[in-house]
Design brief:
By secondary structure, the protein is of the alpha/beta class. The strands form four sheets. It has a six-stranded mixed beta sheet with strand order 5-6-7-3-8-9, with helices on both faces. The protein has helices at 39-47, 78-83, 87-101, 106-121, 127-137, 154-166, 184-195, 208-214, 233-268, 274-287, 354-361, 399-404, 412-421, 438-452, 468-480, 492-498, 517-529, and strands at residues 2-11, 14-24, 27-32, 54-58, 63-66, 172-176, 200-204, 217-222, 225-230, 314-324, 329-339, 343-348, 369-374, 380-383, 456-460, 484-488, 501-506, 509-513. It has 17 helices and 18 strands. Helix 9 runs antiparallel to helix 10 (274-287) and helix 15 runs parallel beside helix 16 (492-498). The chain has a domain at 314-529: Rossmann fold (3-Layer(aba) Sandwich). A hairpin with a 2-residue loop joins strand 17 and strand 18. Magnesium ion is lined by residues 39-40, 68, 176, 437-438.
């Protein structure tokens, strides 16, 4: 059980929520709301890693927390990253190891005794084996366990963070967008897993299907507060819209009544019916329509401009590409020709090499073997799966600075124009990169592509972190784009919205299909039956 008492949070000049009180009981809660509404912030407040402006949170003893950022762990080993899930244990072990390096004194000896007690209390001696059990359950191969986080593929790093959250049997589990970076098979594994979880679960997600399948309640952030609805996401939408439209209807009725009363007052105000006029005025005051707060749901405007210089008819020609990370090759014998105007979805389960393939095509990774010939006038805009590769969150740079630096000669107004379309209006343009939410970061990177206008887009899971409005705006933008687009994603709605070609990384190799997804899936099913 997690209890919030009168929690308020303001960031800069904005109120995210005001005086929120409620209890997350046993059950599976979806925490929803558009990008930037304060979902991650609320989880951080609950965990005590970020202060609330006011209010009190009460928590059970052990709470697991899935973090959204993998960069913070890049130099730790996989095993250590998991063990960090138990803060008390991790801090005690770290302090102990440091003290052992110093010269022994009585004070140090005493402290070591205390630390050993904490470590024993937290089952520190079985920590590694417990971590290994979790990692194995998550399908991570043993050779990863002693590697540094940044040495294993990105999507695997996210699974490690999931193990971190689950470490030490927490009574409550807070997950921030767990399905990002997971393929459909892994998502159904996670759904199954969460169904069996017995404690209090709070999960942030923009994945409607996932929310529908696991949630018993939805806590929705909107109108500067948090409202809890029983049922899953779709049930919440129905209730939320009907409550809202009832309130709007009531307001309309009141306004109509008020204008009738005002008419009466205007007509007879100066006349003889003084008492009737007075009673009408009293009624007008009583009827004041409620001030309905505006919903925070907004839609960005994603339109990639017509490229200044067109690419040649053949955009990229790959012949027998080969790439591996030391061991087994990830990409082998991949050949294809990409033509101007192709709208390609790159699909396939985690670990099959989508990111590797896109990085090779974008020239971000050195080929081991094979030939990659760029076509005439090729100009690539790349969107990495891990936002940290292009947005350095450890500088003081603002969204405006970052975007402006993308182009040599550019007017401030044009930068502001793109920021506005990406929903960074007014002062939001000067938010520091370190403050951006996951979805805001993704929108800013898209803004960079819109500003620079490349003729070929290579996007690696751009829909991760984006809310439903933004994903549909992106699908539209890609379909409308006059250049070439290659996009890795698991999101069917996005794929159906733009893709006219499929590159599928399957267990038995890479398949290329010159048609939409449904057609490819049919063909694949038929081929597998044979
Ligand atoms: N120091 C700051 N200055 C200004 N704004 C800030 C600051 N820190 C956070 N914010 C803003 O607070 C809002 C809430 O951020 P949060 O990360 O909680 O959003 P979220 O609901 O998790 O969004 P997403 O769905 O994109 O992950 C964002 O608009 C963010 O830019
Ligand atoms: Mg977030």
């Amino acid at each position: 059980m997690i209890t919030l008492e009168k929690i308020s949070k303001r960031v800069g000049a904005r109120t995210l929520f005001e005086d929120v009180s409620f209890t997350f009981d046993e059950g599976r809660y979806g925490l929803t709301g558009p990008n930037g509404s304060g979902k991650s912030t609320l989880l951080k407040i609950i965990m005590g890693v970020e202060p609330a402006t006011s209010g009190i949170v009460t928590l059970p003893k052990k709470v697991g927390f899935l973090k959204q950022r993998i960069e913070d762990f890049r130099d730790f080993t996989v095993i250590d990253t998991v063990i960090m899930g138990n803060n008390r244990l991790w801090n005690a072990m770290a302090e102990r190891d440091k003290l052992y390096e110093e010269e022994m004194t009585d004070a140090i000896g005493m402290r070591l005794g205390e630390l050993e007690e904490i470590i024993a209390d937290e089952d520190g001696y079985s920590a590694e084996s417990e971590a290994e059990v979790l990692l194995a359950g998550m399908g991570l191969p043993e050779e990863y366990y002693r590697k540094k986080m940044h040495e294993i593929p990105t999507d695997r790093q996210f699974r490690v963070l999931l193990c971190q959250a689950l470490f030490g049997n927490p009574q409550a589990l807070l997950l921030d967008e767990p399905t990002n970076h997971l393929d459909l098979d892994s998502i159904s594994w996670l759904e199954q897993f969460l169904h069996n979880y017995k404690g209090t679960l709070v999960v942030v997600s923009h994945d409607r299907h996932f929310l529908n399948s696991i949630c018993t309640h939805i806590a929705d952030i909107d109108y500067e507060t948090i409202i809890t609805y029983p049922g899953n996401y779709d049930a919440m939408l129905v209730t939320k819209t009907s409550v809202r439209s009832r309130a709007e209807d009531e307001n309309k009725a009141k306004e109509k009544k008020i204008s009738q009363l005002k008419e009466f007052v205007a007509k007879f105000g100066a006349g003889t019916r003084a008492s009737q006029v007075q009673s009408r005025i009293r009624e007008i005051n009583r009827l004041q329509p409620l001030e309905l707060k505006k919903s925070n749901i907004q839609r960005p405007y994603v339109r990639f401009p017509v490229p200044e210089k067109q690419s040649g008819q053949v955009v990229l020609k790959a012949e027998d590409l080969y790439f591996g990370y030391g061991g087994e090759p990830v990409i082998k014998k991949f050949s294809c020709e990409i033509h101007r105007g192709d709208k390609i979805a790159v699909i396939g389960n985690n670990g099959r090499g989508k990111t590797t393939l896109l990085k090779l095509l974008a020239g971000k990774l050195q080929l081991e073997k094979g030939k990659l010939a760029p076509g005439h006038g090729l100009d690539i805009g790349y969107f990495p799966q891990n936002h940290g590769e292009v947005l350095n969150k450890h500088t003081k740079e603002t969204a405006f600075d970052w975007l402006k630096s993308k182009k040599d000669i550019i007017f401030d107004q044009d930068v502001r124009g793109v920021l506005g379309k990406m929903l960074f209006g007014g002062d939001d343009a000067f938010k520091p990169l370190s403050a951006l939410s996951g979805g805001e970061a993704a929108r800013l990177i898209l803004g960079g592509l819109i500003l620079t206008g490349p003729n070929t887009l290579i996007l690696d899971e751009p829909n991760n972190h984006l809310d439903l409005e933004a994903v549909s705006a992106l699908a539209w933008g890609l379909e409308d784009f006059k250049g070439t687009a290659i996009v890795a994603t698991h999101d069917r709605e996005l794929i159906n919205g733009f893709a006219t070609k499929i590159i599928a990384l399957e267990e038995d190799g890479i398949h290329i299909h010159a048609g939409p997804l449904e057609e490819y899936l049919e063909k694949r099913k038929a081929a597998l039956k044979k």
